[in-house]
């Protein structure tokens, strides 16, 4: 399968083989709020977020939750409920309110690095459509109310809402190629300043399908791991390295081993 970086089309993952499985679509979906990068001209994820570089929505591969541990409960419910459409919302500037930047239609899923025991399912789109952002307040009711209601990270929506929001997005021209170009530009900027595209990951390059095989579930004896750390510190059980990160990383930035980080206690 070609990468989205290479062909620049809205569809990112039409046919995937093992270990990916087809997701049954029940018509339902989710609203998903993400941090967008203040340095970006298009509302891509916050790649430069200090000590918490973001990898989702990963439009380069059309995936969500493959490289990150973000929103495990949402990913788990999408798999089990067939809520196949994710609409992405963000706030571009303070006090300007939320906008919708686009959506995924999820066609595929597999267990991620942390496995089903940690509700770690990776999702892949069979279609994605990113657009000139729509201000939530400009949507007709009841959509404006649904999208502007007080929720912090995600919200399930019914099939009627999914259909209406998808129609509103599909009326707008496809801008996915512009978003992809902006991801590359921001990664280049970050690398010029720090030597890494993702400093908190210890990662010099961006993401592509060639990285995916490292992030699939391989350890059948995985234990439960908290998705957050009160100290914002994580210890690798393989090399003992302690890192600071706002979120659990799937790969240790030092020894590059998978699923080895656990919360470190204060003072360590």
Automatic annotation (TrEMBL):
Pfam families in UniProt: RUBY_RBDX
Annotated ranges, domain Rubrerythrin rubredoxin-like: 234-257
Source taxon at top rank: Bacteria
Cofactor(s) needed by this chain: Fe(3+)
Annotated InterPro entries: RUBY_RBDX
Protein name as catalogued: Rubrerythrin rubredoxin-like domain-containing protein
Organism phylogeny: Bacteria, Bacillati, Actinomycetota, Actinomycetes, Micrococcales
